[in-house]
Amino acid sequence: MNVPVEIFPQLSKGGRFPNAFFGRVPGLDVATEREVALARLNDWHREMREKVGFAGMPFITAQQVHGNGVAVVDAESCSRVAGVDALVTGTPNVCLGIYVADCGAVYAVDPVANCIGLAHSGRKGTELRIVPEMLRKMGEAFGSHPANVTVCLGPCIRPPLYEVDFAAEIVMQCREAGVGEVMDSGICTGSNPGRYYSYRMEKGKTGRLLALLAMKG
Q1: Do 97 and 112 contact (CB within 8 A), yes or no?
Q2: Can you give the CATH number for the domain in which 155 is found?
């Protein structure tokens, strides 16, 4: 089955930081509640992780509560970290995962301090400044400096299909924090129902897109 996958080459830094963004699984019925949809997507996502370079890596996700909590994780962390919306690690070969369906998946890599972060930032999370908090945690835990960080914002919903341009706010927050390189995919999830799930356009009954990020040892 041809499942859409985005890779962000500038984020990869010559292959040191594998990344991916998985789109809609064609033909799979996910017009249901979030946890049921995730269960139906689980086998597909596991197979796809193995195909695009994350095979054998511990897979760690966040509970995603639309807050600004950030967890530092490693290979021994639990597979789903409670109460947070962002994960950071300095451990090689750990696959971070964030699920979205209109909210933004925000990737961050620091090739100098050798650490990465991945955040879930929608309207609420952006208001709570989850991405600056993730950058702060990378600095606190690993000595990362924003000037050495590359940030990428994946596909998310945007005006005119959504009344708040939180994507622009995320980019502005990153620049205000002094991030060295900020990239925005510019893609609207609501505008392409054949490729992406959209919570807004599908009235809450839909699947989840999966953002992945790791750091090679």
Answers
A1: no
A2: 3.60.140.10
Q: Is 40 helix (H, G, I), strand (E, B) or coil?
A: helix
The tally of domains found in the chain comes to 1
Nearest-CA neighbor of 131 among 148, 117, 110, 149? 117
State the Cα–Cα distance between residues 7 and 160, nearest whole angstrom: 26
Tens of pLDDT, residue by residue, the chain (217 residues): 688 999 999 999 999 999 999 999 999 999 999 999 999 999 999 999 999 999 999 999 999 999 999 999 999 999 999 999 999 999 999 999 999 999 999 999 999 999 999 999 999 999 999 999 999 999 999 999 999 999 999 999 999 999 999 999 999 999 999 999 999 999 999 999 999 999 999 999 999 999 999 999 8
CA atoms of 25 and 216, how far apart (whole Å) = 27
Q: What is this structure's pTM?
A: 0.97
The domain containing residue 76 runs over which residues? 5-213
Return the amino acid letter for 174: C
Distance separating alpha carbons of residues 209 and 197, to the nearest angstrom? 7
